[in-house]
Amino acid sequence: MVKKLPKTDVVIVGVGWGGGIIASELTKQGLNVVGLEKGQERETEDYYMAHDELRYAIRYELMSDLSKETLTFRGNEKMRALPMRQYGSFLLGDGVGGAGVHWNGQTFRFLPYDFEIRTRTIERYGKDKIPADMTIQDWGITYDEIEPYYDKFEKMAGISGEENPLGGKRSNKYPTKPMLHSPQMKMFKQATESLNYHPYTIPSANLSENYTNPDGISRAACQYCAFCERFGCEYGAKADPVVTVIPIAKNTGKFDLRTHSWVRRVLHKDGKATGVLYTDVTTGEEIEQPADMVVLTSYVFNNVKLLLNSEIGRPYNPSTGRGVIGKNYAYQIIKGSATGFFEDKKFNNFAGAGSLGMVIDDFNGDNFDHSDVNFLHGGYLSLTQTGKRPIQSNPIPADSPTWGKEFKQNSMKYINKTLSIGAMGASLPFKQHYLDLDPMYKDAFGDPLIRMTYDFKDQDRELAKFTATKAKEILKEMGADRIDAMEELGPYEINTYQTTHNTGGVIMGGDPETSAVNNYSQMWDMDNLFVVGASSFPHNSGYNPTDTVGALAYRAAEGIVKYSKNGGQLA
């Protein structure tokens, strides 16, 4: 029998960056909020003495258990989708804080071009520049409109950085100074300036100095220990929800955080969300939590899965191009990179921080003329020093043997004599790329898994080759004796790690026919249901997504407060 609890003002599904920001902002305005998280609670103390590469980076201590919930994957509709049974291409976080605990901290703003990508592309190049099956669309919000929310997120998180010379205008400087520059970063800066590019320090959620944010949360500066990605930060120097927004929500006395709570359905009646149904995984008890407003703030795949299993919104149909739930799945194109080998130089590559590095945006967005290239958008090129840990780092020339005496010799020779230029390329949506429910495979509770249909397109292959060429150019200018770079981008592989930057499926826009939510992340089809996170991105930019997730969460929080007072559609 389902246990029914007293109604609350707001119930939040997933307590990561989106959920933490929503909880903080709403409770400060006096609303009662229940936060449901399927994983465990975490605190900074959990990471004391936790520099264990095997436990966290190889065995995925902070990630979801794929035996209980995963997704299925296929490259196209003619293939049979199969479950992802081990981690590879991306990592799905688990527990309070979500991916905000194990991220690197690279905190870029999207470009003004991103938010009006279709309009600006047509204005500059004409409609014929857009492939027939590419489904790019404007976001229903402009950079100028979202800029104040970027500023709010960056002040809360204490982002350390300097102005992007090719980015959108800022209302304020970053709240803390840029990270320190290592010798490798100085080499990149000198080389890219000599090539007439515009380098700047990567904006970082790893604090460059001690900082107290507008909410009164004080955190210590980064120690450059290089255990950021896949790890929690024992210093609290890396901004994550556990050390920033969640404590604020708790201190109001209006936030009820419930862990081990697996949400299975959004309940609704007569066009309104009425609450959620969840299972307490410690007891197996089914519980109904009624609420005046429901906010989905879980990861991309789970937001889509909940809507589809709850029969909310119009599922996307790739044959007709109609429907919106599951539409415009996108990923990230990072294969266009290169590695340089230096015979007479040695670097301390083991040191660093998750967001330590230099970057150029000369080939990102529409910052260069695309008339003579066979792709749209672009990506940044960066040299990052995130820390080369011994198990996962073994840089050797591409033509080296992968075992034996020469393999060992090259491993020892080049361990601290290589530098890589990485590319973070935009992923643009296509009609054939989408998320839906798998007709065969189910999770631990018998609910259908999400099925991902995705593969690289000519757009991605051309972009990757282009950025690889530019990466080689920079490494040559830096004095590399040998350079290995990507030659051709093969099919997408779900078993090889790339990024955890999945986007789309519940996209935003200005038209209910082509989008699922408005620019307050409010569902067009159900006005007291908000869906917040990277699932609302109509495409993925040539950047890490977290700054935009945070900005949209602050805007959504503002919208939810307005809705609580007046009701109705906000945009």
TrEMBL record:
InterPro entries in UniProt: FAD/NAD-bd_sf, GMC_OxRtase_C
Single GO term (MF): oxidoreductase activity, acting on CH-OH group of donors
Residue ranges occupied by any Glucose-methanol-choline oxidoreductase C-terminal domain in the UniProt entry: 435-553
Pfam families documented for this protein: GMC_oxred_C (PF05199)
Gene3D superfamilies the record matches: FAD/NAD(P)-binding domain
Keywords of this entry: FAD, Flavoprotein, Oxidoreductase
Record has Cell division as a keyword: no
Annotated family: Belongs to the GMC oxidoreductase family.
Name recorded for this polypeptide: Gluconate 2-dehydrogenase flavoprotein
Protein source organism: Virgibacillus massiliensis
Taxonomy of the source species: Bacteria, Bacillati, Bacillota, Bacilli, Bacillales
